[in-house]
Amino acid sequence: MALPRILGLHHVTATVDDAQADVDFCRALLGLRLVKKTVNFDNHHVYHFYYGNELGEPGTIWTTFPYKGHGVRTGFKGAGQVVDTAFSVPVGSLEFWRNRLRRAGVAFSDAASRFDRPVVALNDPSGLRFELIADDRDARKPWVGEVAKDAAIRGLHSVTLSVLDAAPTLDFMTGVLGYAIVAVDGHRTRLSAGGARPGHVIDVVADPEAPRAVNGIGTVHHVAMAIGSADEQVSLRSDLAARGVGVTDIRDRCYFQSIYFREPGGVLFEVATTAPGFTADEDAALLGGALKLPPWEEPHRGSIERHLEPITTA
Questions:
Q1: pLDDT over 80 at 276, yes or no
Q2: Residue 46 in contact with residue 66, Cβ under 8 Å?
Q3: Which of the four pLDDT bands, split at 50, 70 and 90, describes residue 1?
Q4: What residue ranges do the domains of the chain occupy?
């Protein structure tokens, strides 16, 4: 069977604490557009926020489940998890970001470079670890709202997976998912799909001494990759099942179709289609303005809205 046509990253999803604090951080500070305000399809009393560029194109999307008040424990970062999510910003903009973070009272540091690209590292209010990576290979059009075009985030740059042993993960990603190894720096191996530029790369870091990750508030739940078509997704699912990989059925997420499975190191992967996108139920100019529910939840709208914390998105 031919290897699947993975196009690059699709989105990254994390569990966060307070809904308003999350919106304020992602919109007002990072300058991302809130492209969809909906609910967790597995728990309709919890928001699901999608942030990205103007239309929330695959590879620009950061998504969150705010679980404050729902009894979810604080997570623990470690092996079997995405431990860092990096956003791509223009070369020359990091001083702008340092000043912006400083004014907002957000602690940051200049981290070790990523394959010769400078990095600023920071945490969000829930303790998630972010990186801003200045990269001159990113031609994606950013959302220009709170941050001007010459400094605005272009989209996801990459994610870092922590695993105890890199070999099984690398074999799986290259031999089953079609990724290619493009660079190695010590215990960090960079893989790419659909090109080696921002939005297409995943770093795998081997640390045999790392503690096992515990999912919860302040941790990434999963990373999603984009696939070329629904037919290719079906073929990939069949191949994974034939290999004995525990893969879900195809899930309707309204804005894309998804399958989920764990790679050998324990990280939860999703493979998502690029269509129909976030304008399926909302005009482009109005994205993120209203609470959008999947059709099967509309009969419960009253109860859902009563249980959700009111938030301000203006």
A1: yes
A2: yes
A3: low
A4: 6-307
* Residue 35 CA, distance from chain mean position: 14
Residue 151 is predicted with a pLDDT of: 98
Q: Which amino acid is at 87?
A: F
C-beta of residue 176 within 8 angstroms of C-beta of residue 239:
yes
- Residue pair 222/40 in contact (Cβ under 8 Å)? The answer is no
The three-class DSSP label of residue 141 is coil
Q: Are strands 219-227 and 268-273 parallel, antiparallel or unpaired?
A: parallel
Kindly state the DSSP code that residue 259 receives in the 8-state scheme.
E
Cα angle 37, 260, 257 (rounded to 5 degrees) comes to: 50
CATH class, 6-307 region: alpha beta
Q: Has residue 234 got a pLDDT over 70? A: yes
Distances (CA, A) of 127 to 52, 88, 121, 272: 20, 20, 12, 26
**For residue 186, with 0-12 CB atoms within 10 Å meaning exposed, 13-18 middle and 19 or more buried, which class applies?**
exposed
Whether residue 21 has pLDDT greater than 90: yes
Average pLDDT over residues 61-88: 97
